[in-house]
Amino acid sequence: MEITQNQLEAHNDRASKAHQQSFNFIAATQQRVEEVISKLISFQVAIPSWALGTGGTRFGRFSGGGEPRSLDEKLADIGLLHRLNQSSGAASLHIPWDVPQDYAAIRQQAQHYNLRFDAMNSNTFQDQPDQAHSYKFGSLHHADPAVRKQAVEHNIEVIRQGIELGSDTLSIWLADGSCFPGQLNFRKAFQRTLESLQEIYAALPEHWKVFVEYKAFEPNFYSTTIGDWGQSLLFANKLGPKAFTLVDLGHHLPNANIEQIVSLLLMEEKLGGFHFNDSKYGDDDLTAGSIKPYQLFLIFNELVEGLDARGLDHATGLGWMIDASHNVKDPLEDLLQSVDAIMLAYAQALLVDRDALTAAQDNNDVTLCQEILQDAFRTDLRPVVREARLRAGGAANPVGLYRELQIRQQLISERGLKTVATGL
Ligand code: PSV
Ligand code: MN
Ligand code: MN
């Protein structure tokens, strides 16, 4: 199923009058609109292959039908998203949930949809049917060197597959930890993890990076071996210049000041990238911006400030990825909403009057600092995000067009109603 140019244009024509009115108003009242638009156009957010199917919880899973049954179909789904919003031009794969086989064909398919391959994710948190050793008590931190060796070899295999696909990043998330006090010697677990990571690091090609993701809880509930940004940063510093911390918004203890963490990691040149999502309680993996849009804006505010301070290109300076997946929405609609929320938060952060904020900070004018930030956050920049999308060749209303064209129904008739996306 592919969206034709005629279908796209007809939709955009219908939206044109209302869009022009709202865009003209904002363009007349905000000076920096053109600068914001050009930055939005180059900003791309990678789609995780595992979010294209309906996620489950441990209480069940309710398939919406028409889910991708192969890597081919996953790339086709990401191609659809990118066609609609022109901001989803990258895929992040998870091995072995994804099974890349014919690399040349996959690369060709990605090229057809104008996609590149972002970070490759390894998986040592589940046992696979053919593996010799179990990860029940961890992987890279395991007391048994044979288990560690198996997990290291898997990561090296993921790097090899990533090379074939043209990726340049390995992303590692470990479930390693403990469920009860006394179960684990923290120091030994850390040191064994470091040694394992060093072996993986040694296998990285010259221009590659490794992202070390942290998470405070789940599936282990007493300790996690890479539990917070400090522990991830320790590993990244000890590993060397190709190692960075990855921030997944749902992986913090409640009320953590994520924007401050982001600011300092960026300052230390150790912020690698993001897994965007939102949460109310824990690692809820909800649509980005659906629960705490102000937090998302404050994070982007630090990112824009920090990237500019370091002279980095916003689009390529960090790895921008989504890690969301859940139970009750159409996964493609959900991903369109996440990308849109990310673009909006980014646009609002670009609008912050940086000079005025710096002056107000230096004068300790706390009231004015808040006014400046909230002025940007409360400006409705949806017409600007829409204008950027239209200029890039996307749809005025991606979710609207997705529904008008009954894409889910078409996917169901192509793929069937009882589909389970591979990997979940
Ligand atoms: C773990 O909760 C995580 O955030 C990691 O990024 C995994 O790779 C991903 O979720 C998929 O389950
Ligand atoms: Mn994640
Ligand atoms: Mn997570």
TrEMBL record:
Gene3D superfamilies, sorted: Divalent-metal-dependent TIM barrel enzymes
Pfam families to which the protein is assigned, alphabetical: AP_endonuc_2 (PF01261)
Leader sequence segment: none
Coiled-coil zones: none
UniProt keyword annotations, A-Z: Isomerase, Manganese, Metal-binding
Xylose isomerase-like TIM barrel domain location: 100-285
Keyword Metal-binding attached: yes
Molecular-function GO terms, alphabetical: isomerase activity; metal ion binding
Entry keyword Membrane: no
Protein name: Sugar isomerase
